[in-house]
Amino acid sequence: MKARVFVMLKNGVLDPQGEAVRHALGSLGFDGVEGVRQGKVIELDLAEGSTEATVTEMCEKLLANTVIESYRVEMG
Amino acid sequence: MKARVFVMLKNGVLDPQGEAVRHALGSLGFDGVEGVRQGKVIELDLAEGSTEATVTEMCEKLLANTVIESYRVEMG
Known about the structure:
The structure is a homodimer. By secondary structure, the first copy, chain A, is an alpha+beta fold. Chain A has one domain (2-75): Mth169, Chain: A. Chain A is built from two helices and three strands, in the order βαβαβ. The first copy, chain A, has helices spanning 16-27, 52-63; strands at 2-9, 33-46, 69-75. A three-stranded antiparallel beta sheet of chain A has the order 2-1-3. The longest helix of chain A is centred in the first third of the chain and has 12 residues, at 16-27. The interface between A and B is medium-sized, with 32 and 32 residues. Strand 2 (33-46) of chain A pairs antiparallel with strand 2 of chain B, so a sheet runs across the interface. Chains A, B: Part of the FGAM synthase complex composed of 1 PurL, 1 PurQ and 2 PurS subunits. Chains A, B: Pfam families: PurS. Chains A, B: It is found in: Cytoplasm.
């Protein structure tokens, strides 16, 4: 079974990668880009019967730095 | 309005970051992790009236390296 984890920097945490993308889009002539935030998506291929609780534990222990990042788990 | 772009390495392209995560999860005692792929999620804050076609153009020109990466756009 598949699980997806989305990890984003929390609001208020500076996102230089996102800022760089915003500037680059402006330079390429894309107007109206008001903000860009860049995060990670981690696709996990898990053994059958794995639970969302396990994936949440993975996030807490490894996948996200919960001081500055928030995460969301999507199963299936 | 918001748009989200998901950028993943294409199948067959080596993903050392994903492999590192897989090993680390194993070391932490999480069994049954058969595969991990890591990608990017880019959240765009766009002016009203922006279209999916514009975001697709952003992907082609900047956000994804279409030689090795695939992308998916989600509006709204």
